[in-house]
Structure formats: C-alpha cells, structure tokens
Amino acid sequence: MPMALFRDAVATVPAYAEFLRRNAIDPGRVADPAAIPLMTKQNYHQVFPLSERCRGGRLESADIVALSSGSSGRPTVWPRSAADEEAVFARFEQVFADGFRAAERSTLAVVCFALGNWVGGLYTLGAVRHLAGRGFPLTVAAPGNDLDEILRVVGELGGRYDQVVLLGYPPFVKGVIDAGIARGVDWPAYHPMLALAGEVFSEQWRELVASRAGADPVTDIVSLYGTADAGVLGNETPLSVRIRRFLASRPDVSAELFGDARLPTLVQYDPATRLFEEIEGGTLAFSADGTVPLVRYHIADEGGLFPRERLIERCRREGFEPGDGPDLPFVYVFGRSLFTVSYFGANVYPENITVGLERPDVAEWTTGRFVVRTLEDDDRDLVLNVVVELAPGAEATADRRAVAAESIRRELGRLNSEFAHYVPADRQTPDVELRPADDPEFFPPGVKHRYTRP
Description:
- The protein is of the alpha/beta class.
- It folds into 2 domains: 83-340, Rossmann fold (3-Layer(aba) Sandwich), CATH 3.40.50.12780; 346-435, GMP Synthetase, Chain A, domain 3 (2-Layer Sandwich), CATH 3.30.300.30.
- It has helices spanning 2-12, 14-22, 41-45, 86-99, 119-133, 147-157, 170-182, 203-213, 238-249, 251-258, 308-317, 350-357, 360-363, 398-415, 417-422, and strands spanning 64-69, 75-80, 107-111, 138-141, 163-168, 192-197, 221-227, 231-235, 265-268, 275-279, 283-288, 294-306, 330-336, 341-343, 346-348, 366-376, 382-390, 431-435.
- Helix 1 (2-12) crosses helix 2 (14-22), helix 4 crosses helix 5 and helix 12 crosses helix 14 (398-415).
- The longest helix has 18 residues, at 398-415.
- It is globular.
- The two termini are 33 Å apart.
C-alpha cells in the first residue's frame, strides 16, 4: 500500500507534492517506501492549507468534518468521506460480531462519547448506525456524556434488548457503572458490554469493572485504538485480550516482549487498510488512504508490532495456549510519548498546565516546573495528578494546593476544548502535589526535565 498510496497522493494532493519538493524528494526516483519522508502534524498538517491536503485540493469533496484539540486548544479539522469510514466500520463490525455476538442478539448501543463535532462521538455514532443498516438487530441511543441521560436511556430501554453496549472512554464508562450501582441499577440484568477507547487501562481495572457490571472480562470489554487523524486503527479481540491477561500475570515475559515495565494496549489491525511501521526509537507510523491521505504518518505513539504467529508462539513457549482468533498482526501501544497524557480521552498538554502555573497568585511561590500523569485511586478511578515544584524556601500548604489545582483546572477548561467537553466536571480539578525545589524524585538537578510521566 505505501508505494501505491504514495504515487496517488503525489498525483492528486497539491500539498503532498509540495511537501516532497520542500524535502528535496523527486517522486519519480522513489522506489523504496523507506525513502518516503515521514509526515507529521507539525511538518504537514500545520504547514499546508486544509483544502490543499485534500484530494484535488477540494475540501468540498469531504462529506463531513470532525474536530480534535491541539496543544494550543485550537481545534484541528479532519475532513472525512463515507469511503474513508469503511475501514473504521470494519473494526466496529469485528468487535460487535465476533466479540459481542450482536449479529444474533438484539442490542441497545449507548454512545457515551461527547457529541457535537468531536471525533469520538461522530465516528462511533456513524459506525454503530452502519451496523444497524447492515442488518444487525441493533438500536442506537446517543445521550453523549450526560450521566443522568445515559442511565435514563438504559433504565427505560435496556430491558427490551438481549444486551446493552456502552461505548465511551474507560474512566467515564466506569463512572457510569458505579453511578448506576449507587442508584440501584442491576447491571447484570442488562448483559452489558463495553466498547472503550482513548486510554490504556490495566487488567486489574478490566477485572474490577467486569465484576461490577456482571460482564465477562475477555469477551465483553473491548478497547479500540484510534486517532483523530484516521479513526480506529485496531481493536482488541478475545485473542488479544487473553494474551494481554496472560502477560499481566507474567510481568517478566511482558517486559521482555515490550521492552518496558508498563503493560501496553494490545490490539490487532488490518494491514490492507492501516499499514503500521515501527520507527527507530520505538514509536509508530502508519499509512492510510482517505480524503486527506496519510503516507508514513508519524503519530509518535510509543509502541511496536508483532506478527501474529510470533506472539502466539512465544505464549506457547511460556506454557500458555492463547486459542484461536483473527489472522491479523498485532500492534501494541503505550500511548503518547513525552508530550501528553490522556485523561477521559482528552489529550492534556503541558503547555496548558504551564499557563495555570503562570498566574500571579501561583507563580510567586512555584518555579514553573511540574510533572503531569494519570493515576488510579483505591477504587480504580482515574485521577489527573500534577506534581508542582515549589520555589526555594516556599512552603507546601493546603491552601496553595487548592489554589494551584483551581488555576490549572480553569486554564485547562479555557485552553483545551477536548478537556472541557470530554472530562466530567467533577473530575476536572487535578490532584496537586507540592514538592520542594530540586526534589530528587521529580525535579533532579542537572537532568533534562520531563513534564509527563506514564
């Protein structure tokens, strides 16, 4: 696909031809995909006008646009056509047909992603309606991320179907499950299934949520891996979940396979529509056709690839039989590299937090350095944690923690449109820790500072 897509983009996309010219690439001399320069949001999408990145230089060839938020909070526009979404619909069909058996069970699908032009809600609503149009006995409800409306829909309609599928960001859907339990919802009676996206979650989290919902953790809880740029790129299958659960129980094998103590999301993908590459340094790129073609697009997600048989054979050598599953390769993903953390599906950028710490009532007793990360509390709920470095001699007080937390919350909501729309209001205030200057754990002197941590 890369060479065919490359030649087509050269011939039909004005911005891509200019992109190659600026990189001193003669497209007629390119015979090896490795010679094609990597495309990024910074060197391509933010450089060339939107219409010139579309085929024929025509934005009006798109059927719809979706929005995602960049580091400045200014939305990025992603044009789509119906043809672009066929590859995404195939991934949803694999989840609903193979995992949830929704082709043979009447299903109420409840879209819990934020609605509007935001990419998650648009894609999900379109994909699930497509399945209904294909003959699945499936009805879609789209309350968005309105907790009361979600529970009202489930309560009024859920009992009329064989099963209910909740689609949303993992921490938000867990909040729906927990709120329902508090209000007396008998989740097992609805035979719930969960289709999740936007976060890496632990197998302990999956087990906890499955137990509260009365769901099977292997077949009933599925993670989708996607980006605003190209939609769903891959999805968990019962095979990938079984392997991941085994690796969670064998951290020694996991660390050897993935080169990291963290357990990544593990999904399968179709190389005919989304062809991944592992770039030197342990990040991912992919090629995908669409209204805005992406040729060796470097998304900077940390991760890598495994051929199907290689990963299965390794499991067998360790005494674990993973069983059957799709004949598709695996991609594993840790998430964004050094620059962001994902929280309720929103990319939280250090630049946004910096502004909160630059307000006069905070800047006078902080250095401006911080570390942002997501943690799980004792109830496996996701928490946005910000460790802030105090100015030399400044004291850590409860009042200062509260002031910093509120300042960060206010600026995140103002600057980052994803954060404002995706994160529930009662989860938007971060947990702030105040550490002394040059704290050895978070702010060691003489070391290049990292503003995010996994």
